Every structure is written in structure tokens, then in C-alpha cells.
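Milestone 3.1: sequence recovery, worked example.
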């Protein structure tokens, strides 16, 4: 239904508008060519629509301003890292207080105990450790799973994303495990370390686990990084039964699916992981992550890590569990990322979904909207994908770029990698209705 010539023309017009209205960001981007690789601090920032990223001046709550003075409704929220909203007061106060007392000690504080006890209350796992990022938490969990099982391989679902964990940058091509497109300098052929099956494919999962060499299954409980893909009814019960039968540990990555509620998808749906990882929003935007263990796994680990070698095992880090991160985590969990906040944010995501679905119905578009808790996303396809392969096949990079840039030029920022919107406790119905109006305007422009 989309005229590609018209789409290209519309995008070019939006790009001109972007360049004209963002001269300071453009100048800073040009200056950055002299000191930053490709003019950005992280190479993936080159993916922002418009040809260069906007440079931020400040943010508060669900909004931020750029150096050109434009104010934006932030529906990206640091791709979950800022789902608490920017600069939540309780977290800011805790960070300011801790900063005056010291940033890091390489020693525990009472905050470590409080956070671990709160995580146990939310997720049901009795033992916890700290990391700097969810990537690290996943790496450490995988190492421990390999040690406990004596097996070398992990299993992931096709088109998953679990941070920059080498073993997870694998996909399926004609049934074979290969390096995912864009995988920079893989240390080994991923077929040597990883088995890959499609999400919701229990027969393939059972066959892969039956080979007896899988140490762990690393999974989001609902896929999010290729778009929101919900598990089929009964999928998680079968996943849990199959991993136990095969002697493989089950690691649930809640870094994005914490949008489902204060205890993530795990608490909302009664899951029973062996290990659980979580990063990004737990510190209100201050770097920090956690990984937890079931009682059985904690018991199996007891005494397995030799004291003389515990600082060279490939787990932990000098700044992991630093005092500043823990102060932020305690304040965020205790006062910001609470059950009360979800009672605000989930209805906002429902309103976002209803608004976009109303426009889709009005113009009879073959598109859909999916939602998980306070996270929502629209798809340029008529039916919901059941797995990563179907989701990847539905990708439309040019249309994504246009929709993102059209919204950005009108003061709304979506996540750059897909059409995701996240709600914070500071997001308002006015913000959501503004997005619906802009979405409708973009559709009208597309259809002429």
C-alpha cells in the first residue's frame, strides 16, 4: 500500500527539515568527526534517522531538550534505561548523597543487602550478585551455567538480543547456525558455541536440547528486541519442563520485560528460572545490573568457586556493585520503579495502543500494535509474528526511518531500532494523544 517513490520523497523532505531545524546538533556532529569514530560515541548511534543524532542538553521526567532548544516527548527513554523517567527525584537525591561519601569501595554496604532482599521479594530468587550491565550479568550467568553443567553450548532464540554477549549473535540460515548480520569480528564460529531455535517452536527446542551439550537456555520471557513477540499459551511451562529434563539451566533475561510489572514477566506469570538477569532501568539510568540464583543453583555453587582463584574467574569487576550504583538501585526500587508506578504506566501504554490501532483501522492499514505492560510497538504487517524469523522478515528499514524522523521533527522520539514506545511514571495522557495525532499525520502523508 506504500508508494516507495513517494516514501523516498517524503523522507528526503523530512531530512531537509531536520537539518534546517537542528543546526547546532549538526555542527557538533561535524566537529565530532575529528574525535569520535564516525562522529558518534558508540557506532550504533549512526542508526538514528536524519543523518546525525540530536545532541541533548537536559532531560526531566518524560521529556528532554536538545542543544537547538527543541523539547521532545521521550518514548524511547534510553531504550528502557530511563523507563523511570529522566532524573527521578528519589534517585537523584540518593546519588547526590552517596557521591559526597564515596563512589566505590570494593566492599559491601547495607544497600547491597536491601537491594538483594527487595529483588528476592519481587522475583522469588533467594541469592543475588551485582554487575555493571545486563551484558555482564548474562556473561557471568553463562559462565556459571557452563561450570555447573560441564557443557559448552548455550541455546538462544532466533533474532534474540542479550547485550553484547558473543554467543548470542547467532541466527538461523536455512536451518544452520551462522553469525548474525552485523556481528563484528566474532571470536569463533557461533555454531561452535550456540544452538539457535525459533521462539515458540517446542519441537525444535526439544530436539536441540536432546543432544545433551547445552549448558543453558538464555531467553527473554517475551521477545522484545526484534519487536514484541508473546509466548504461545503453555510455552513457558514446556520450556521449563524441557530444560529440566535435559539438565540445562534456564536463564531469564528481564532487562526489557521488567516493563510487565515490578517483578517483571517472571512474577507476573509465575516463571521458575534457575537464574535471572536484569540491567538498565534498575538504577534509574545509573549503570548497574543484577543476576539472581534459585535455591538449587545457589546450593550447587556453594564451595565450587575456589577462594584463591575467585578474583580471576571471569566473573565480577572492580566497579561491579559500586556504592553509587547501589544507592541508585535502592532509591529506584524503593521509591520510583514501584507497583504504584506501573498502575500509571500500563494504562498509558494501553492508551497508546488504542490510539494507534484507531488510526490503523481508520485508514484500513494492514498493520498491528503489540503491547507488553508499559511497552507498546506497532508493526507493518497484518498478523503478529510468533518468532524472530517472522519478525525479521517483516522489517521495513526505509519505512521505519521515515516514521521515526517524521515523529522526531514533531517533537516525539521513539526507540531508534524499532517502533517501540515506553511509558514512564512522568508520561501523561497529553503526551500519548500527541503521539496519536502525529502518527495519524504521518499516515496521511504516506497515503497522500
Amino acid at each position: 500500500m506504500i508508494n516507495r517513490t513517494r516514501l523516498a520523497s517524503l523522507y528526503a523532505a523530512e531530512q531537509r527539515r531536520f537539518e534546517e531545524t537542528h543546526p547546532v546538533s549538526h555542527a557538533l556532529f561535524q566537529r565530532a568527526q575529528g574525535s569520535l569514530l564516525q562522529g558518534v560515541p558508540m557506532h550504533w548511534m549512526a542508526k538514528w534517522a536524519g543523518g546525525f543524532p540530536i545532541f541533548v542538553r537536559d532531560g526531566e521526567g518524560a521529556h528532554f531538550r536538545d542543544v537547538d532548544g527543541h523539547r521532545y516527548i521521550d518514548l524511547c527513554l534510553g531504550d528502557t534505561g530511563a523507563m523511570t523517567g529522566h532524573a527521578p527525584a528519589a534517585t537523584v537525591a540518593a546519588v547526590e548523597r552517596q557521591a559526597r561519601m564515596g563512589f566505590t569501595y570494593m566492599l559491601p554496604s547495607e544497600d547491597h543487602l536491601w537491594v538483594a532482599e527487595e529483588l528476592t521479594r519481587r522475583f522469588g530468587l533467594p541469592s543475588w550478585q551485582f554487575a555493571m550491565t545486563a551484558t555482564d550479568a548474562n556473561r557471568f550467568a553463562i559462565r556459571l551455567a557452563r561450570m555447573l553443567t560441564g557443557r559448552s553450548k548455550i541455546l538462544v532464540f532466533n533474532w534474540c538480543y542479550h547485550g553484547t554477549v558473543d554467543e548470542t549473535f547467532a541466527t538461523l540460515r536455512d536451518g544452520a547456525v551462522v553469525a548474525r548480520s552485523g556481528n563484528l569480528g566474532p571470536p569463533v564460529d557461533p555454531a561452535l558455541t550456540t544452538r539457535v531455535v525459533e521462539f515458540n517452536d517446542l519441537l525444535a527446542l526439544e530436539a536441540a536440547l536432546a543432544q545433551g551439550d547445552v549448558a543453558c537456555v538464555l531467553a527473554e520471557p517475551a521477545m522484545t528486541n526484534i519487536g514484541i513477540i508473546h509466548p504461545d499459551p503453555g510455552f513457558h511451562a514446556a520450556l521449563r519442563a524441557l530444560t529440566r529434563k535435559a539438565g540445562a539451566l534456564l536463564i531469564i533475561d528481564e532487562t526489557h520485560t521488567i516493563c510487565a510489572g515490578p517483578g517483571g514477566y517472571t512474577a507476573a506469570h509465575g516463571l521458575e528460572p534457575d537464574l535471572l538477569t536484569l540491567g538498565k532501568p534498575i538504577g534509574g539510568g545509573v549503570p548497574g545490573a543484577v543476576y539472581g540464583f534459585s535455591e538449587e543453583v545457589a546450593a550447587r555453587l556453594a564451595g565450587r568457586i575456589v577462594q584463591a582463584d575467585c578474583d580471576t574467574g571471569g566473573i565480577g569487576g572492580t566497579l561491579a556493585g559500586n556504592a553509587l550504583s547501589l544507592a541508585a538501585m535502592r532509591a529506584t526500587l524503593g521509591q520510583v520503579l514501584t507497583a504504584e508506578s506501573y498502575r500509571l504506566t500500563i494504562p498509558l501504554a494501553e492508551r497508546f495502543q488504542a490510539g494507534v490501532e484507531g488510526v490503523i483501522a481508520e485508514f484500513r492499514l494492514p498493520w498491528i500494535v503489540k503491547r507488553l505492560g508499559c511497552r507498546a510497538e506497532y508493526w507493518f504487517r497484518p498478523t503478529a509474528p510468533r518468532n524472530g524469523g517472522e519478525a525479521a522478515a517483516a522489517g521495513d528499514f526505509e519505512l521505519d526511518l521515515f516514521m521515526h524522523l517524521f515523529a522526531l521533527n514533531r517533537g516525539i522520539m521513539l526507540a531508534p531500532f524499532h517502533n517501540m514506545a515506553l511509558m514512564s511514571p512522568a508520561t501523561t495522557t497529553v503526551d500519548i494523544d500527541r503521539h496519536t495525532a502525529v502518527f495519524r499525520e504521518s499516515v496521511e502523508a504516506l497515503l497522500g
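Residues 47 and 118 are 37 Å apart (CA to CA). DSSP finds 14 helices and 16 strands in the chain.
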